[in-house]
Amino acid sequence: MLWISSLVLFSALLFTRHTVGNLSGGIDVAAADLDGDGDIDIVGAGRSANQLVWFEWRGPDNFVPHTVFNAHEVIGCWAGDLDRDGDCDLAAATDTYLVWFANNGAGGFTPDTVYRTVGCGWRVNAADVDRDGDLDLLFTDWTESDLFWFENDGSENFTPHLVDGNLNWAHEVWGLDLDEDGDCDLIGTDWLTGNIYWYENNGSQSFTKRLVGNTGASTYGCWDAFPYDIDGDGDPDIAGTNYNGNGSGNGYVRWFENNGSGGWTTHAVDEAYSGNAHGVCVADFNGDGFGDVIAAGYGTHVNGYEYPSWTMTSIDIVSTALAVYPYDIDRDGDMDFALSANTFYWYENTTPLYEGIAEIESAIPNEIFARFRGDILVVNLTIPEAISYSLEVYSSDGRKLETLERGVSSGGQVNREYRLSLSPGVYYLVLRAGELTRSVKILAN
Hints:
mainly beta, 4-stranded antiparallel sheet, 2 domains, globular, 58% strand, single chain, Immunoglobulin-like, Methylamine Dehydrogenase, Chain H
């Protein structure tokens, strides 16, 4: 039996705002190192400006804008290594096109049209849907109510596959394994009904549409969704916003708990959000091992919510805020976030990190040591008594990358070496022992 005497110290989610730059109608945002200099740059979609822009980091309040693309109503943006050449490429959804941009390694981009829309493109994302080792593109067409995935043949030639043609005013799209069967499922949001759906992959890219839940009490208004393991149980949950909320001027922020097999339970985060709730993102902002929520609304507040009480902190008021994106922008080991508006901002995390468990009497490792030796992760830890445990590696934005080991310890020292292929950056080694979780930051060079 475990006996735990604990002192848990919670504090408000605290951030310092920094200005990135202006872009009229800022509607989407991403962050990545685009010029290979080790700093994190910001990507912005400007719907009114009709531009895709990246803002080069020269300092916390010093960003230099670079126009990537001029097109009517640039609405969605994504950043990642699409062509697997080691640098960060871009993709954009406009009201007419889905386009990707090959990076020359120094922040110069060459456009290539993937698809000409029938209606109005909205969101672009990427995932390895067919598990062939390259990233495929995900895309929603808002006015045509379509959700697509575009199959990458490995040479960035894309074949469109329509997953759902009845996702009423389709907004968000994500790809990840939701039911823990090893293949890539999809998430889509339906603006008109307020519903979030997930699409179960049968392993051969045939998808079955299933309901996650409704984001509001009225019918329409589902704007955004963000997957993350909020409760720390090893499977991805989903946070979502509904800007219409209850139909009486209050937006809703909810999270949907995954039971690990694709079953969902709806929980309230904030059902009295003052004004419209639009953008949402999730990350462990206070270092306690669980997902905290940031929500932003056009013409209203930017709020932070700590799991599990969902204590609200008013972070800022930005009149044209729409999207939020979590990333360790200043590379200091904690999660910051970027925000899209007519002026783009990034918010430096100044939250005191969670102090954790002050005293542990039984069955919890009191020391975890982890370090890289080349591409070998060396792990040493002590588990005082027999207990089931697992070791997992997470990215800095909360995505589980790999389960290293599951087993039952007989007690004593655990020494392991794991060969990992990780890009340079900050990661977290997460140990689950019985009902408790402990994490340690690891740096891959």
